[in-house]
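Protocol step 4 of 5: obtain the predicted structure for the target chain.
Materials: sequence only (see below). No template structures provided, no constraints applied. The aim of this step is simply to have a reference model before the mutagenesis design in step 5. Sequence pasted as it appears in the construct record:
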Amino acid sequence: MAGHWLNEIELPRGMLWVDEFDWSAVAKAVDRSITGALVIDAMAVIEGRPITLQAVEDQGWIARQTLLAVQALAQEPGAQYPLVLADGRSFSVQFAADNPVSAKPVARPELPPADYPYVATLRLITV
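Step 4 output (structure tokens):
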């Protein structure tokens, strides 16, 4: 089974989009007028949707070499990348400002080889 693709890096299919439904395409500001009437200002939100791909202890492990390649992408200021999810949906993304990549090894190897598995979280936003 094919996984997700970030730029030209294949990510494990088991990394789930954990905040897929924690976002709205409509932003609203609610206020009161000087007469006390409710004023609702609504607008479409075009960019900035979070896409957090997250592995867990028993699925979605990412190899150390892949993790290093993803971390290198995250170090490019303002760079935008294509993201294609395993289900075929495509987005243009960049890494989130805060803690864009976090990971820990599945166990605690002294010298992990390139294919050693990690449990990782990638924080992206649409642009």
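Step 4 remarks: The first strand starts at residue 4 and ends at 6. Residues 17 and 53 are 5 Å apart (CA to CA).
Proceed to step 5.
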